[in-house]
User: Which sequence fits this backbone?
């Protein structure tokens, strides 16, 4: 089924050696030993596909499901997500149902239940697809990632962690342990929108995540965070569009100016899913809608 | 790496199998254990025909390492019937005419079971969303959705009765 494993009495050995550490210390020690020959395995929905297709060939796979301390969800104003938190676990977390809702909106559109039951936040970030759905939400929320190795722990802003298509600032001997998001400012709301050709089970043509902070009167925008997916080599912040929101009145003209700035700043490509021109158009549409939704949500709160 | 001896619990039965580390649960279920009710298709977690339950959660067995299933309870379609009687979901699929070629059905039934265990009284929209990971080329999904909703009602009635 998965290729012939026996021919003429000769057996094909496994493509990789499998390790199942039971502690963080053991996991990072293994990663230090194997370096670039090793890969961590969380849910497997990215890594195992790539192994099957021959795109990556780790000699050692370090499974994480028996390492304690990686599946916690802590909400205390801000959020801390363990790297092995699944997308389904995010969907089911009541605390995310309010102003932080974009996290759920980004998590729930990935694959189907079967994928989301095992696919993890950490795995998704390390895979660093330019079209990732949860990543723009985390980026718009000023997320920081924690990386653990034998040398200790370091924390990076997510924007610095994402380096290129399927490339991150993680060294081969580092384990992404946690994603942290600071608490929302007052009068802030979030939204996430995804555009594609069908209702489920697809990679985004364009996706947009927004965190909009209003002033106490809720008539003016104090600041915005805008993250765009599938329109650049990596998930990107739309800094010019964010600047177009600062100290502006909440309303159609402000949001249209921000949408225009985002359209100009993105660098989409033509591919099998859509043309660059259509993507650029969608960025403007989705951003306007996401900003409007944030304004409604901030005002309703 | 030579084969590893692992213990797998499938449908309540304990098996010892010798597998290479990179064997998928789907392949081990079908080839080593002879449980061919779980089907093979895309092999990349896109279609859902290989759906099994691991500790009650629906997963794609085609991208689940067999070695990672050690210590977990695996349920395949063969494990639904009890004492010779089919599960209400299986009966509902038969009664609703939801089975055409049949290939997507074991995976779909298991995905539906996992969802109903979580949400016993879903709306039609919720059922459709829960089955997004199970593709069917034959039925157009309507009778599948009808079957799940009718099974949900029957299972709720049985729960009240028991």
Assistant:
């Amino acid at each position: 089924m998965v290729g012939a494993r026996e021919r003429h009495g000769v057996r094909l050995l496994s493509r990789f050696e499998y390790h199942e550490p039971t502690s963080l210390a053991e996991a990072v020690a293994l990663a230090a030993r194997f370096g670039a020959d090793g890969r961590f395995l969380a849910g497997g929905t990215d890594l195992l596909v790539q192994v099957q297709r021959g795109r990556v060939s780790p000699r050692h796979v370090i499974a994480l499901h028996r390492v304690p301390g990686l599946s916690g969800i802590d909400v205390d104003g801000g959020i801390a997500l363990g790297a092995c938190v699944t997308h389904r676990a995010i969907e089911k977390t009541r605390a995310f149902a309010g102003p932080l809702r974009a996290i759920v909106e980004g998590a729930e559109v990935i694959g189907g239940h079967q994928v989301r039951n095992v696919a993890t936040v950490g795995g998704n970030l390390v895979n660093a697809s330019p079209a990732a759905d949860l990543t723009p939400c985390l980026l718009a929320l000023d997320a920081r990632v924690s990386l653990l190795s034998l040398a200790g722990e370091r924390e990076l802003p997510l924007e610095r962690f994402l380096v290129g298509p399927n490339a991150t600032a993680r060294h081969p001997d580092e384990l992404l342990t946690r994603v942290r998001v600071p608490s929302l400012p007052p009068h802030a709301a979030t939204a996430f929108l995804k555009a594609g050709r069908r209702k489920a089970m697809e990679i985004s043509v364009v996706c947009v995540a927004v965190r909009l902070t209003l002033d106490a009167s809720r008539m003016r925008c104090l600041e915005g965070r805008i993250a765009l997916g599938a329109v650049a080599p990596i998930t990107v912040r739309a800094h010019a569009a964010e600047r177009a929101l600062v100290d502006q009145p909440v309303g159609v003209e402000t949001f249209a100016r921000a949408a225009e700035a985002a359209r100009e700043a993105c660098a989409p490509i033509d591919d099998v899913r859509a043309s660059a021109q259509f993507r650029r158009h969608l960025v403007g549409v989705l951003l306007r809608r996401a900003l409007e939704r944030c304004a409604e949500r901030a005002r309703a709160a | 790496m030579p084969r590893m001896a692992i213990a797998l619990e499938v449908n309540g039965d304990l098996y010892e199998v010798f597998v290479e580390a990179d064997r998928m649960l789907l392949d081990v279920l079908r080839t080593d254990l002879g449980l061919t009710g779980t089907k093979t298709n895309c092999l990349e977690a896109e279609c859902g025909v290989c759906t099994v339950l691991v500790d009650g959660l629906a997963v794609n067995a085609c991208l689940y390492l067999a070695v990672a299933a050690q210590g977990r309870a695996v349920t395949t379609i063969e494990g639904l019937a009890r004492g010779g009687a089919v599960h209400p979901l299986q009966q509902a699929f038969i009664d609703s005419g939801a089975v055409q070629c049949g290939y997507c059905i074991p995976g779909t039934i298991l995905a539906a079971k996992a969802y109903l265990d979580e949400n016993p009284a879903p709306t039609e929209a919720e059922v459709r969303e829960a089955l997004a990971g199970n593709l069917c080329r034959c039925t157009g999904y309507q009778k599948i959705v009808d079957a799940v909703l009718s099974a949900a009602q029957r299972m709720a009635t049985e729960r009240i009765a028991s």
Q: What stands out?
A: The two ends of chain A are 54 Å apart (CA to CA). The CA atoms of residues 19 and 112 of chain A lie 28 Å apart. The mean pLDDT of chain A is 94. Chain A has three domains: 11-63, 73-181, 188-300.
